[in-house]
Amino acid sequence: MKDITGGITAPEGFRAGVAECSIKKPGRPDLTVILSDVPASCAGMFTSNRIKGAPVLVSRENVKKGSARAIIANSGNANVCNGEDGLEAAVAMTGETARLIGCDSTEVLVASTGVIGRPFPIEKVLRGIPQAIKNLSNEGSNMAARAIMTTDTVPKETAVEIDIEGVPVKIGAIAKGSGMINPDMATMFCFITSDISISQKALRKALKIAVDKSFNCITVDGDMSTSDTVLMLANGKAGNALLKSRSRHFDTFADGLSEVCLRMAKALIKDGEGATRFITIQVTGAAGKDDAIRAGMAVANSALFKTACFGSDPNWGRIICAAGYSGVPIDENHITISINGVTLFEIGRVLPMDEKKLREEMSGSEITVTLNLGMGHAEATIYTSDLSYEYIKINAEYTT
Amino acid sequence: MKDITGGITAPEGFRAGVAECSIKKPGRPDLTVILSDVPASCAGMFTSNRIKGAPVLVSRENVKKGSARAIIANSGNANVCNGEDGLEAAVAMTGETARLIGCDSTEVLVASTGVIGRPFPIEKVLRGIPQAIKNLSNEGSNMAARAIMTTDTVPKETAVEIDIEGVPVKIGAIAKGSGMINPDMATMFCFITSDISISQKALRKALKIAVDKSFNCITVDGDMSTSDTVLMLANGKAGNALLKSRSRHFDTFADGLSEVCLRMAKALIKDGEGATRFITIQVTGAAGKDDAIRAGMAVANSALFKTACFGSDPNWGRIICAAGYSGVPIDENHITISINGVTLFEIGRVLPMDEKKLREEMSGSEITVTLNLGMGHAEATIYTSDLSYEYIKINAEYTT
Lengths: 400, 400
Hints:
The structure is a homodimer. By secondary structure, chain A is α+β, with helices and mostly antiparallel strands.
């Protein structure tokens, strides 16, 4: 696997274009079209929130067909809770895009992010689509990454090249999201392209593996949005032999895709609203994988733990406390906790610590917590950010 | 039911005394003894966190006996994760108290709050017990309420008088807690006294009813502590005929006790770390009571909703979003949402609002959200606070 430039337009046969529809503040593009020159295998994963944006409902149906040509996405309005009007608007976005590129509207996937419950400015969006298509470019990834941002402070894109039986295959992605990020992918988008030739079944399988290891292992504030969407297009332009889920090289592709998703997931955390620390929580010694994830997520979502990280406070009591209410069976006499490599609590025993030194170390940009439950051999790694003044500022002032 | 003064020492035959053991900063009392002159029926409810403080383990055993003379409580160190030493310290606190007042050590209930995983300063505490007992007074409630405080900014006490078959019966309480307050009573203490004559069974039943309606319906930050404790003593000094759980007047007592607990619960929220708003979430139209509580708690614990309240932002999208990920089956087309009496979303339809006016109203000290799920007839009321800069400050700097 090697790093390459070009993001979502790095793979062969993909172009991206943006437009400014005045949904967001003037001067900020807010509409993105990602186009595959030829029909592509597609797969998607969506929020598990019971309230789903209209675009989620439309895209979920369209990905079932297994083949698509384009993704159309806007920021600034999530098109959620808009009833029939919302659904019509989402369908109109696919229809207009399809008309202009010459395909069926069911071959277009759609996503919207932004405020919930505001009438969707479909007229503005429809006027923007021709403009976005007009400036489609195979160097459009960075602009596309910018046009899907909401409270994000930096665009997020990445690309890698892998080798499938001697054929170079590229995978590229852009992502957005900085708050409301939680398992099951809250208010985040990740759009992924690849020029691999792959069966629909294998693509879906690889995407699930990658998302479970990445977006489903991160959390900023425990909130889960109505619009989370991961969409992937794979157009076969690399010319490899069709990859199937039982192919010998399936794992090579799944690993590459997982790496791309993990990079994007980490980028979301680093840009977490008000984040000053990137926090890694390694849970080991769990009785099962689910226990490991549950305990790690409880710690990652604990407001007390997150504020302690913001304050560079090695308050491991908040870690064991969160694990204790996670619902996972634990026993303090089996637990060992380390922060940045310093063991503070070992199999039920408090160890002496050089607090001043540890505080200094925690004041850096990364904090790694290791929580060994001592109950088995399952593991999980969860990523999160701290909870800072800036988070409050951003979220008390967002919207309106 | 009428309000009376005197807090926990209002009921006949109860005295309270405090001491300064230097666990907290100098000048702040940190040890409390609450004594009943005669053996009292007792009941307790404790944290459901899997990690439990040593005092929780000791008190849980002792309340099973059904009769107690005293409560001893300290603040500044929670005596959690201290292994055998911690258990010995908790037992030593009951033993020394029992020795000085002349009862069995199992007739003393114990509670500790403060930092987790610090060696417990049992020598300091043991030296303080005689002092606390020496200044026991039937006017000691307010001092006791102060001595159990940690990050609390105000002492919390209340008392009421009810009438049981013509006999005046008093119920008094003190409480502490301002962060980590969540269902199942996180890092909060509430100690309750009454001079009612009541069977152990009836006392336990009434306490469960009262706690379910009060402490289990509040949340500050979703964290649940290792030390949450509600303890109640009822010494029979009022002279009423022994109240049993099937007595005609049981409900009168249960209502009085519920009112006392609800006042304390609301006081905890009002003193919630950094709280600037008291938020009431009324969930109606739920298919069942559990659904109502779950949906309400998801909203109450949503960092996005809480920061919106801090910012006086009528962002009802964050309410429906939180309800959506609560796990409760909901359908946006059945939902109606109001904030401070203004309906913003009605059976799936966004209503126009005078946003400026509503923002002004939300800038007051109380916000009431009504969330009608439109799925049935069950209801629940959840209380919480907003999430402010001050919360971050307090919790980034607490501990160490």
